[in-house]
Amino acid sequence: MLDALLSFLILTGAIFTFIGSLGLVRLRDFYTRLHGPTKATTLGVGSLLIASSLFFSTRGEGVSLHEVLVTLFLFITAPVSAHLLSKAALHLKLHSLAPLPQGERSESSGPNRSTVSQNSERDAQ
Amino acid sequence: MMSSVALPVAFALVAAAFALSFWRLLVGPSAPDRILALDTLYINAIALLVLLGIHLSSALYFEAALLIALMGFIGTVAFCKYLLRGDIIE
Amino acid sequence: MRRWLPHPLIALALAAVWLLLANRFSPGHILLGLVLGVAISRFGARFWLEIPRVHRPLLLLRFIGVVLSDIVVANLAVARRILGSPERLRPVFVRVPLALTSDLAISLLANTICLTPGTVSSRLSPDRAHLLVHALDAADATELAATIKRRYEAPLREIFEP
Questions:
Q1: Is the ipTM reported for this complex over the cut 0.90?
Q2: What fold characterizes domain C57-160?
C-alpha cells in the first residue's frame, strides 16, 4: 500500500517535472514558455518532496518534515521569479503572441522609477 | 515496485527534463529565455537530489537541495535585476 | 511585552523554520528555536516597516485551502495545454484594475496569480492601479479579470483591508 502510494507520488512528480521542461521547448513565445516551468515544475517537485517525507518518516527514525521547508520555499519563490522574468521580458520588449493592452506600452517597468527606460521607450515610439 | 519500476522511470524522466532545459539554455534566443532555462535547471536539480536521497535512503542530500533552492532563486533574481536596471548603470 | 516581542507571529514562524531545519522536535530544539525566533525578530524589527494585521484568520485559512486546490487544478490544466497543440493556444494580456492598496496584499495577490490558473502577473503599474496579467490560454479576457477579482482579490481585501 505504502509502496504503491510512494510509486504514484514519485512518478507524478517526475512526469510533471518533465512536462514543465517540455513546455520550455515546445511553446512558441517567451511569455507562454514561462508558464511551463513555474507551474508544472512546482507541483512536480512538491509531490516528489511529499514522497521523500513519507519515505523517511516510515523508516522508524521519527517523522521527517524538513522537506516541507523546501516545498514552502519553492512555493514562495517560484511566483516571484516568474514575475521578475516576465517584467524583464516586457522591459526588453520581447516579441509576444498576445498583443499588449492599450496604455501598457508607454509605462515604465514597475514602481522602481526607471526614468531612463521610460525615455528610451518614448524614443522607440 | 517502487525501487524497481518507479525510481528508474523517474530518473529517466528527470534526466530528459535536464536535456530539454539545457537545449533551451543553448538555443536561447533571448536573455530571459536563458535565465528561465537556468531557473528550470535548478528546480530539476532539486528533483534529482530528492530522488537520489530516496534511492540511496540517505537524508544527507536534503541540505544540498535546500542550498540549491536558495542559491538558484537568488541567482534568478540577480539576473532579472541586471536585465531590468543594467542600462541605467551604463 | 511590545518592546521585547515586536512581532510574535514572525518569532513563532522562525522557531518553526528552525525546528524543520533541525528535523528534530526535542524540548532542547524547541527552546533554542524560540530563543532564536525572539532574538531575530527583535533585531530585525526595524526592517519590517509595515506590520501586517490579519483581520479574519479563518478566512485566511480558507483562502489558503482554495489556493492550494487551485494550484493542483492549474497544474493539470497547464500540463494538458503543453501536451496539446501549441498552435491552438490563445495567450492574452489582461489589465486587472486593483482595489487593494497595502504592499503585502498586492504582493500576495500577484504571487497567487502566478501560482494559479494558467496566469502570470507581469507588471504593476507605477500608480499601483493596475496589474498586467499574462494568461496562457483564455477565451475571454474580461471574464478572466473578473474571476481573478472575485476569487482572489475579494478575500484578500477582507482579510487585510476591511
A1: no
A2: Alpha-Beta Plaits (3.30.70)
